Amino acid sequence: MIGGVLVQRTVGEILPALDNSVQQMSLLITTLEKQVEEKGKELVSFREKFNIRLQNDGSSEPQSDTSKSQEEGKSAGVLVNS
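RE: above sequence
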C-alpha cells in the first residue's frame, strides 16, 4: 500500500522503469543546460548589438564622488512621526 492505494507491482517491475526515467531526466537536464547556455549567449550578443545596459549592471561607468554623496544624503522614503 502506497499513500492509501493498493499497488500490485513488484520491485523487479518498478526498478527498470525508474532507471529509464533517471536516464531520460539526465538527458533532459543536459539538453536544457545547453539551451540555457545558447540563450545566454544570444542575450549577450543582442545586448551588445543594440547597446542595451541594465540599470544595476556593474559594467556601466562608475559614479562620481559628488553623486554618491548626494545619494547617501537622500531619504529612503520612510516617514517618522514623533
